[in-house]
Amino acid sequence: MSTLNVSAAQFVASIDWQENLDTATQLIKQADADGVDLLVLPEGVLARFIEERERIREHAQPLDGPFVTGLLKATEGLQLTVVVGIHEKSANDKPYNTLVVLKNGAITGLYRKLHLYDAFSQLESDNVTPADVVPELIDVNGFKVGLMTCYDVRFPELSRLLALDGADILVLPAAWVKGPLKEHHWQTLVTARALENTVYVVASGECGQRNIGQSLIVDPLGVPLAQAAEEPATITAVVSRQRLTDARRRLPVLINRRFSVIPTPRPVEAVPTS
Description:
Layout (H helix, E strand, L loop, with lengths): L2 E8 L6 H17 L4 E3 L15 H4 L6 H10 L5 E8 L7 E8 L2 E7 L25 E3 L2 E5 L8 H10 L3 E6 L7 H16 L2 E6 L10 E3 L5 E4 L5 E8 H10 L2 H4 L18
Parallel strand pairs: 1-2, 2-3, 7-8, 8-9
Antiparallel strand pairs: 1-12, 3-4, 4-5, 6-7, 9-10, 10-11
Helix pairs in contact: 1-3
């Protein structure tokens, strides 16, 4: 295919996984009706706890749990690919922050978050287990798609590695926490990751009391194609093979680069408390 219809949908996740499943199911149905090929939903929408974040430990589900099973059922018979973030039970009491890729009733890709949000006085690592595996690209109608989650966008080596692996599109489910300058950081970083790697970025940000929303789709020359505000919304854009080719011809950064990115994980270091 020479084009791909992509959407990012944002909503307010509640503490009730069934309510969030119903919302995601409706978004999947609407995306399919609209002819969308790739739908990106936010990070960690199985359940959202604003104050008692440690509760995600007890509410996390395995991949064969009712939340993912319900999403799989919602995609049966559809050609739509869906990317959604959940908290997945791990071998210890801290779950993974996991992206699940679904198509036609099957899981077609997984990514467990590498960079946990231990910044701006937040400690995601208190309740989540970090992974150390770079995700494989997924194929969506001939376009190669790389997976990233929220805080990952602040680490350009991951997006560069995915681009060098062959990514045409980076998807970025997020729950970007509100705060001074945080909207500016979000827009700047999403745009930079697209422009510096000449890829499309489809970023879906959860909205609500804690998070900014502002889902964003950016093209490989850093042009914003669609953006949401702070309320529940769905944005859509067309990814073009010709635009990718033209951008990489005019701005051959992937050819001009002088350094390689070697995916050797560093040890997780303790975050200073003062």
